[in-house]
Write a structure and sequence with these properties.
Length: 725
Amino acid sequence: MTESESSRVVEFAIGGMTCAACSARLEKVLNRQPGMQANVNLAAERARIRLIGAADETAVIAAVAKAGFSAQPVDSQTREREKAEKLRVYRSELRRFWISVALTLPLVGQMLFMFGEHGHHNELPRWLQLVLATPVQFWIGWRFYDGAFKSLRGGGANMDVLVALGTSMAWGFSTIVTLFDLNQYVYFEGGAAVITLVLLGKLLEARAKARTSEAIESLIRLQPKTARVERDGQWIEMPVEALMPGDVFQVRPGESVPVDGEVIDGDSSLNEAMLTGESMPVSKRAGDQVFAATSNGHGALRCKATGVGEHTLLAGIIRLVGEAQGSKAPVQRLADKISSIFVPVVCVIALLTFAGWWWYSGMFAEALVNAVAVLVIACPCALGLATPTAIMVGTGQGARAGILVRNAEALERAERITILALDKTGTLTCGKPQVTDVVARGASREEALRLAAELEQNSEHPLARAIVFEAAAVDGKKTQNFKAIPGHGVEGEVEGRLLQLGSPAWLGMAADPAIGELQDAGKTVVVLAEAGQVLALIAIADALRPTSRAAVSLLRKRGIRVIMLTGDNAATAAAIAAEAGIAEFRAGILPGDKAAVIAELKSDGGVVAMVGDGINDAPALAAADVSFAIGAGSDVAIEAADLTLIRSDLLGVADAIDLSAVTLGKIRQNLFFAFVYNVIGIPLAALGLLNPVVAGAAMALSSVSVVSNSLLLKRWRPASPEGAG
């Protein structure tokens, strides 16, 4: 049994994490357990764990509990339960915060009246300060003691240790001074203000973090709760969860599609912007695919369910976005490594600060205050939130624009792409033959198409389907004496007229200059003739996508070397490459050989990306440093590629690279500010230049500022085709 066969990935909701040290320690604890490979995300409060062999959920929950946290497997109802629980906790914390403010304000307020000539006469009685500060320290601040105990019991140290240790030192010293009536200053206001400010920071941080998951929440809200299903000739309302593949459902005008399906009959247009980012409605008729949560327009559709529950495209998107948000970018490894040793180092610095100031000044109180300031200013929250919050917002914005990011590592690599290999069919082109030219000879364009479509109306050949589609309207009259001549074409009587439709060579037209020009342009030409007289030349080709040329231009402007890979002959490849604005191509490449081409390109150095349809290009996608799959609704595409472009548009590659650049830019900004904050703040506190109250405010502000900076990614928008041009 292979590892892939004997392992499974389970996602857990984690409770009790407060900072980067928490998530780093929990990840280390879990990875030490037999049969577990864990990735813990502080911002999402999630752990994705690969369970190998006999390891199971019970073992995970036990290991997490031993480390001082709580764990619960994520299921379809977890998100709703979490929202309700977080709302309850938030309201409770908000009440406690305002109580803390009410108790702390008199302590801080007295400081405003202590700078005059008789400042000390304006000081509150110390017994009253003790009464006000004690509930803040041990009731409001109990969460820090609880968190610190669990952290230390688990063999680590986190932010709670710093806050509990620093404020306890201030409260303990002040209490001794008060009880024994010593001639020393008291610092009740310092400890109480720090706890209040840290609590405020946590509340603001919780609100900001909730906004980072809005992308998934908005996707979940899109799917309707009920569906109108056909049962014994009657339409009944059923919960969406009850639908099974094969059920027939109806989508009326203005409604949302409940599950993935295939149109049986009806004609309408659907707004698929939530999947593809494309605002233009997409027409739907019999045989077309529809996707859950897309919005129906003017017509009614009768559809057969093909994907329900966790097997809809929407569910796949939500699952992928969640996985990407829970993954780690390589840039975070430095932050993780630092945070794992950060708290013990800070405790040592605080101890040295205390000893140094006591030796230098001989004042125990001054040494204590400076040591407390070091402990408070050094909270590593900002460091822990710097990367995951940016990844969460960035991948969420990508999902809204039809760009599904499989993992954060791929998102980080995308901005460094130097070579981009493109599959031709279905990537640069639309992936299905279309009529491009009708050269009228003995009949008008409309008549020639109508006659050719009548002749080919029952054929399943791709070229025949292209002609029928282009004709739009077919009378449906039965063709008389129909005959197919293999390798040449077809003939039959339409409206009493004996018609032939086939290759130029079969009909003696191979030397026609017009045919030669069309074929040189990479098009397939068929001839419509009646009794030996040519009625029209019909050219058919897999047409270039409307946005492909603009996308290639945009990519080349970024300095990316664009190469087209195709199995077509050199003439057709050259024609398509020229039309797309691609200077370099490889023709006659079989699907299995594309991976070898990717390996060759990688040998020259640089970051090589591959864009394909995710099915016949799977080996090449796997070989590339970064892989993009084009195609909505393809499970294989989603599984094969690092990034999936749902809207089937090559502009999505340029958008994904741009998203990578802006997301990594935010991560670098966040890490810079988090590092600088500590690099500047800790020495200032150690030198006695920061009051603990100011340090508490700065610490709270740093976490909120990092999350808020990540939220600026919500301004990112994909490039429009016009803008790309």
